[in-house]
Amino acid sequence: MPETLTLREGYFGDPAAFQALADLLQDIFGIDISHQMNLGGPDPTSMPFGYFDPSGRCVANFSAFSIPLVVNGRVVRAAGYQSGAVRPDYRGQGLYRALMKRAFDWSEREGFEAGILLTDKPGLYETYGFRTVPQFKFHGAVPHADLAVPRARDLDLKQEADLHIVQIALGGRQPVSEIFSVVRQKEMFLLNAHFDQDIRLSLLEEDDAVIAWKPQGDTSLQILDIAARQIPPLGHIVASLGAHFERAEVFFPVDRLGWDGVATPHQGDCVLMVKGLDLTSLAQPFMLSPLADF
Ligand SMILES: CC(C)(COP(=O)(O)OP(=O)(O)OC[C@H]1O[C@@H](n2cnc3c(N)ncnc32)[C@H](O)[C@@H]1OP(=O)(O)O)[C@@H](O)C(=O)NCCC(=O)NCCS
């Protein structure tokens, strides 16, 4: 490690250091995580490990955070890993290897039983026991709701009252699937909804349910996630979003939707990798909701 660099961990309490990480991720990935400050703040469980130069610039980072999962009906205490990057002029010197080791050692000391990450470079993590798992989305015709259903209302995260509604829904949500889903994760849901302007958040007032979705042409829609105390049936949800939708594509396991979609492989930019999780016993295909992406 270059002698001029300082290693810092758990530094989100320092606003300048958080902004330095935001600058690193903006420069490397073109995303601005500082928007989290308008959405309730970063995940309080985050444990970032970073190298900083004498001017306070973050030149490398790798973060762990707590992401409890439901897997086959069981709550699994998992650590997620994110925000991994090294500035080009500091690459090839072992900085990332050192940060990964620190984060994995920390997770082990903290007693996490599993690890999970999303990456376009799976080779980086195989050495540390991570394995790629295939993901599947689900599609099919939409069942018709039996009764007339009230129309959903669109929410706008820039409106404080609407943001509050989404935060409350996320705080009290039922995991969207018993097969594979996050138990509760607010920060990434809000940031992902903020980043992708095509995502619509709609409130089913009578059900206290927030639906993250995208229309696809005139007659199809994608359901990306649902934050609700009780997940409503798919027919009910779709009728609230628009009676003209005939087909749905769902981006999480559909066991709570009262609907059987056809599973097809999901090819995203990144693959899902896990360690410490035996997924061979899972009876059904699954994917991690895009709103839980990190
Ligand atoms: C990938 C990246 C973080 C590597 O940083 P680095 O400091 O150069 O990595 P290190 O020198 O610590 O090397 C660590 C290991 O990763 C390997 N590695 C480096 N770049 C790699 C790549 N692009 N693909 C696969 N493995 C890679 C190295 O060979 C080394 O392996 P070893 O431990 O078996 O010797 C850096 O190139 C980067 O920031 N890239 C752009 C952002 C990115 O892809 N981040 C990862 C997102 S999941």
Write a structural description.
This protein has 294 residues and is of the alpha+beta class. It has two domains: 6-112, Gcn5-related N-acetyltransferase (GNAT) (Aminopeptidase, 3-Layer(aba) Sandwich); 137-266 and 284-292, Aminopeptidase. It has a seven-stranded mixed sheet. It has a seven-stranded mixed sheet with strand order 10-12-13-14-15-9-16, with helices on both faces. It is 22% helix and 30% strand. It starts with 5 loop residues before the first strand and ends in a 19-residue tail after the last strand. The protein binds coenzyme A. The site of coenzyme A has 16 residues, from strand 6, helix 2 and helix 3.
N to C succession of SSEs: EHEEEEEHEHEEEHEHEEEHEEE
Strand content: 25-35%
Q: Please name the CATH topology of the largest domain.
A: Aminopeptidase
Structural class: alpha+beta
Fold blueprint:
Layout: E1 6-9, H1 15-29, E2 47-52, E3 58-66, E4 69-71, E5 74-76, E6 78-86, H2 95-110, E7 114-119, H3 123-126, E8 131-133, E9 136-141, E10 153-155, H4 160-171, E11 180-182, H5 186-195, E12 200-204, E13 209-216, E14 220-227, H6 234-241, E15 247-250, E16 262-265, E17 271-275
Parallel strand pairs: 6-7, 14-15
Antiparallel strand pairs: 1-2, 2-3, 3-6, 4-5, 4-11, 7-17, 8-17, 9-15, 9-16, 10-12, 12-13, 13-14
Coenzyme A (COA) binds at residues 28, 84-86, 91-97, 119, 121, 123-124, 127.
